[in-house]
Design a protein that fits this description.
CATH architecture: Alpha-Beta Barrel
Number of strands: 14
CATH superfamily: Aldolase class I
Oligomer: single chain
Largest sheet: 12 strands, mixed
Number of domains: 1
Strand order of the largest sheet: 9-10-11-8-7-6-5-4-3-12-13-14
Structural class: alpha/beta
């Protein structure tokens, strides 16, 4: 199996074109969208092997010298906030807890942009040992990936028997004040019947649950539109156990549709990436662990920031590359198109 086949593209895109772009500092694209939400992947390594994300053997290791250093990550996050209008920053992986210098990264970013809330998406494995240190470093909140509270189902889906560690991580995050704690659950056929139990657990634990439609970003390339669980199916299953009332999404760029549970105030969200796509309001920009800019989860266009960064480029040059990358963002992922081709990078190699 080649690097490309399991998620690390071998070819990078050329410098982006700025033809026709208005003179604005923000991350504007040709369709009028402005990216204000930055996702920063900091590693390709993960402690789990979820079937919808990772191959069983894990992703090929990115050579250490190709990973962005803490100082480089801090510089790029500060640039995005100060010069490009980014207002939300989330650290992803792989699994960000796999980096021993995570606290250093968080502390550096918090020092440079203290006004920006810093968030992290994690599987929670090991979080119980680091939640307080991460909060002290400046982390504000976490999203924890948890698809089922059935131990056997968890072990089958993640290929690891670590449910207890994930649940302990969630409890530790709440105790450390990383609020709100949100739980992300990918909709899978084998765990659909347990969705009501997961929602009950989250309600009891004081967590906000969001279900996510499975996307064609798995390393094994087994995703099929006809086999995926849709938001409509989930609502039927949950509706048999709870009284669900549709509510206003609020922020139009927020991906989750929300339903009050049994009259509220608790709610459950559904991110219907495939069947109710929200590409026309997408406000995200992405930085991979090896320093590549991506304007969309499903695009294979990547623009290199690492090379100019390490060659002495100033902030103005780096900002110009970033603006160009987003100016060339496409209209949407096109999953329902007959000629749709999944991206080379899998979810684990892009960052959630």
């Amino acid at each position: 199996m080649t690097l490309v086949e399991i998620g690390i593209p071998a070819v990078r895109a050329r410098r982006p074109s700025l033809d026709g772009r208005p003179d604005t500092p923000y991350l504007l694209d040709r369709f009028g969208r402005v990216a204000r939400d930055l996702r920063v992947s900091i590693t390709e390594k993960c402690s789990l092997r979820c079937t919808y994300c990772m191959p069983e053997e894990g992703l090929p290791e990115i050579p250490r010298h190709e990973l962005l250093t803490p100082d480089e990550i801090v510089r790029l996050v500060a640039l995005a906030v100060r010069e490009l209008g980014v207002r939300e920053v989330r650290f992803t992986g792989g699994e960000p807890l796999m980096r021993r210098d995570l606290e250093q990264i968080i502390a550096g970013c918090h020092q440079r942009v203290p006004e920006i809330p810093l968030a992290m998406t994690t599987n929670g494995v090991g979080l119980e040992h680091r939640a307080h240190a991460l909060a002290a470093a400046g982390l504000h909140r976490v999203n924890v990936s948890l698809d089922t509270v059935d131990r056997a189902g968890f072990a089958k889906l993640t290929r690891r028997d670590r449910l207890d560690s994930t649940l302990a991580g969630i409890r530790a995050a709440r105790a450390a004040g990383l609020a709100p704690v949100k739980v992300n659950a990918v909709l899978m056929r084998e765990t659909l019947s347990g969705a009501p139990d997961l929602l009950r657990w989250c309600l009891d634990a004081g967590c906000e649950l969001r279900f996510i439609e499975e996307m064609p970003l798995d390393a094994d390339h087994e995703w099929a539109r006809a086999n995926m669980v849709t938001a409509a199916e989930l609502l039927d299953v949950l509706g048999a156990h709870f009284d669900l009332t549709a509510t206003d999404r609020g922020d139009p760029s927020a991906p989750a549709e929300k339903w009050l549970v049994d009259g509220g105030p608790a709610a459950v969200g559904i991110i219907a990436t495939v069947t109710r796509k929200f590409c026309d309001t997408c406000d995200r920009t992405r930085l991979t662990a090896d320093g590549m800019l991506r304007s969309c989860l499903f695009s294979d266009e990547e623009f290199d920031l690492r090379q100019p960064l390490r060659s002495g480029a100033g902030d103005d040059e780096l900002a110009t590359i970033w603006r160009g990358a987003m100016w060339n963002k496409w209209a949407g992922h096109g999953i329902d198109a007959e000629d749709f081709v999944p991206p080379e990078r899998t979810m684990g190699a892009i960052g959630g």
